[in-house]
Amino acid sequence: MTGRGKTNELFASEAELKNVLLHIQQDCAEKLEEIEVKSDEEFEAEKYKEILNQVHFIELHYAQKEKLVKKKNMVDIITMKNEARMNHVTWRHSIIRDIIEEVKIRLHDETGITKYRTLFSMLLLEGLLKMLESNVKIWCRESDVPLAYDISKQVGKKFTKMTGIKVSLTIEKERSIDDKDTGGGIILVSGDNKISLNNTMFSRVERLSYLLQPAIYIKIFKKKRKKFLPKKSFSDWELKEQSLSAVTLL
């Protein structure tokens, strides 16, 4: 009986040991499963975080590229507008220059002898009044030398009467001016060659056109906008012909 009792106790101990081992294995399996689940959750969380970081990086990268593209487009638009504005200004300036050149031609061709004599006298007197010199040399066109001799004494007396300065006028025939570049008129030089005054016809037109340029622009391009900037296109010559009627300012 004693041996059987020991055997029964041994079997009972083995059964208990098996139960303990079974519980341990079950606990280990549960713990392992918990660890795996937690690891998967942490992995998914890290993966999601990394994806968000990459998405944010990509969005930031393309946002910067979009800004650069917009900036470049804006610069291109501004450049195109400036070029268009400059082309328009150049076009308007060329129209004004054509008108001024046409005025020079008409002034040269249409000024009669009597009118030119009066203009020549006025240009000489005006030049003397500006210089206020007692010794002045006169340069003029070769064809105007007789006219200069004819009116110089009269103008000199008038100048002396107006200023009280006695003036000596010397006509330098060897220093004649070019008709093509000046259109007539005179160039005055002081006796010591320190002062010179260009009072030719074309120089006066240039000075007047500079002073009256704002008024000329208003006369041509604003008040007559519909006439000078029509829907249909005109040639430069047609525009110039239309514009000449507006240059009575000169």
TrEMBL record:
Note the Gene3D superfamilies from the entry.
Answer: 6.10.250.1620, ATP synthase, E subunit, C-terminal (3.30.2320.30)
The source's superkingdom equals Eukaryota
Q: Name one GO molecular function term.
A: proton-transporting ATPase activity, rotational mechanism
Of which family is this protein a member? Belongs to the V-ATPase E subunit family.
Q: Name one GO cellular component term.
A: proton-transporting two-sector ATPase complex, catalytic domain
- Which Pfam families does the record match to this protein? vATP-synt_E (PF01991)
This chain belongs to the protein called: Putative vacuolar atp synthase subunit e
Task: State if Transport is listed as a keyword.
Answer: yes
The entry's keywords? Ion transport, Transport
